[in-house]
Amino acid sequence: MRIVGGEFGGRRFNPPARIPARPTTELAKEALFNMLSNSIDIDGIKALDLFGGTGSISYELASHGAADITVVERDPSSIEFIKKTAAELHIEDRLHIIRGDVFKFMKQCTDKFALIFADPPYALDNIDEVPQLVFDRQLLQPGGLFVMEHTTRNDYQNHPHFQRMKNYGMTIFTFFHQPNN
Q1: Where do the domains of the chain lie?
Q2: Strands across the sheet with 140-150, in order?
Q3: CATH of domain 26-177
Q4: What is the distance between the alpha carbons of residues 153 and 76, in angstroms, rounded to a whole number?
Q5: Residue 87 gets which letter from DSSP?
Q6: Which sign, positive or negative, has the C-alpha torsion 161, 169, 150, 45?
Q7: Per residue in 51-73, pLDDT tens?
């Protein structure tokens, strides 16, 4: 796993094999952050990383200057790896780790974020609830962006907040936008 850009660009981390995650590929992550840099100024924002896995997206957000990052993950070995890596990068003050169920977190969360990224397990039965909850719970700030990683099995082009979709092999990023009031 490599951080592809920003302050920590090029740094490598090796998550333990016991982590039950499917990290976003470097090629897809690089493309994602190129698209994000054309859509939103990451520097100084408050961001949310749902289904944090190895923490790869959170480290990339920190590397690009995000000031406040909340990562939600339920697996204890993933949490330990995220804590260890955050300490190595000296970003513990910017990275808030929530150990728990993403859906429970979203239903209870009262914060608003400029950017939300979700990389749920592709086979998750209730994957379609993720974008619904983001907008039902009003988790995005006005003008905010929500990006969800998924496969061709899911199509969100008819979602009222759909903005665009980019396909990278088996990886699809769907962008949703919260209009300014």
Answers
A1: 26-177
A2: 95-99, 68-73, 46-50, 113-118, 140-150, 171-177, 162-168
A3: 3.40.50.150
A4: 29
A5: H
A6: negative
A7: 999 999 999 999 999 999 999 99
